[in-house]
Amino acid sequence: MTTIDPPRFESGRPRRGINWEKWGWIYMRASGVVLLVLIFGHLFVNLVAGEGVKAIDFAFVAGKLADPFWVVWDTLLLWLALIHGANGMRTIVNDYATNPTVRRILLGAIFASTAVLLILGTLVIYTFDPCPVVPADQLDMLPSFCPAQ
Fold first, then answer.
1. pLDDT at residue 4 above 80?
2. Can you tell me the distance from the alpha carbon of 69 to that of 85, in angstroms, rounded to the nearest whole number?
3. Is residue 36 domain-resident?
4. Residue 21 in 3-state DSSP?
5. What CA–CA distance (Å, rounded) separates 6 from 14?
6. Within a domain: residue 145?
7. Does residue 41 contact residue 73 with C-beta atoms inside 8 Å?
8. Is the residue at 149 inside a domain?
9. Residue 95: inside a domain, yes or no?
10. Which of 62, 81, 60, 46 minimizes the C-alpha distance to 125?
């Protein structure tokens, strides 16, 4: 007869430390609920409210990123979605990559790509300049709220 250790036991001994799998599972559920609100709010504002998809241009994006509310909204959307996706990919790798070396390489690639995308995405959101310096013949391309240079 084969016995299975209780979940809090590993090799017949109680497991010590933080249960990262449990917290990853909880994160996936909590972030999924918050992401539903963030994504549908994003889609509603961008595609339904106002003039719809035809109104999305540089000025629309610049106007949104000039408002601190939308900066926080987009930052939350970026971070939660990327970490949620990376955690899902981590779970898939842990389930299907049987070779420990391949698993380590894949998990490292997931971590590295997630870190790079989080850094770059956050930099774009927080350093976006809606009124860049442009040549005089292209001033008509600036959003209406930018002062003439």
1. no
2. 24
3. yes
4. helix
5. 9
6. no
7. yes
8. no
9. yes
10. 62
pTM: 0.77
Domain that holds residue 63: 21-131
Total domains present in the chain: 1
pLDDT per position as a tens digit, 20-62: 888 989 999 999 999 999 999 999 988 888 777 787 887 788 8
Asked if 57 and 143 touch (Cβ cutoff 8 Å), the reply is no
Kindly report the three-state secondary structure assignment for every residue of 83-102: HHHHHHHHHHHHHHCCCHHH
Q: What is the DSSP string of 89-137?
A: HHHHHHHH--SHHHHHHHHHHHHHHHHHHHHHHHHHHHH--SS----GG
- Bridge partners of 9, per DSSP, are 14
Contact 134, 147 (CB under 8 A): no
The CATH number linked to 70 is 1.20.1300.10
